[in-house]
Amino acid sequence: MVEFRIDRRSGVATYQQIVQQVRQALRLGTLVEGDRLPTAAQVAAATKVNPNTTLKAYRELEREGLVEPRPGLGTFVSRTLARPESAGDAVLRAELADWLDRARTEGLDREDVEALFSAVLEDRFPRS
């Protein structure tokens, strides 16, 4: 099950953070087709967000065809975003972990790493 983490300082709307975290879990295979998402009440209890915020996020995910509500049962993943794993994924993950260890050794904190990574990501993979 996915555990949502809300960053109230990020400037990103709370419902959008939930949408992004579900998408990421779908890409990484943490959530797969058929998995049940936590209820709005469960998310509210864990994150201190209004249940309607979670429902708004789930409606967005439903519009994208990623989840489907089942009355009386909950909201379930209807398709994945994960691509088939390759041997390269494990190598890239290990290299990224090594890079993050070096960044920490150099004194960078999480926000420094996020800023640096975002800048390079945007340079290498610009949005259209």
Structure notes:
The protein has helices at 14-28, 40-47, 51-63, 87-105, 110-124, and strands spanning 67-70, 74-77. The radius of gyration is 17 Å and the shape is globular. The mean pLDDT is 92. It is mostly helical. The chain has two domains: 14-77, Winged helix-like DNA-binding domain superfamily/Winged helix DNA-binding domain (Arc Repressor Mutant, subunit A); 87-124. A hairpin with a 3-residue loop joins strand 1 (67-70) and strand 2. The chain has a two-stranded antiparallel ribbon with strand order 1-2. Helices cover 55% and strands 6% of the residues.
Q: What's this entry about, in short?
A:
By secondary structure, this protein is mainly alpha-helical. It contains five helices and two strands.
Topology:
Elements: H1 14-28, H2 40-47, H3 51-63, E1 67-70, E2 74-77, H4 87-105, H5 110-124
Antiparallel strand pairs: 1-2
Helix pairs in contact: 1-3, 2-3
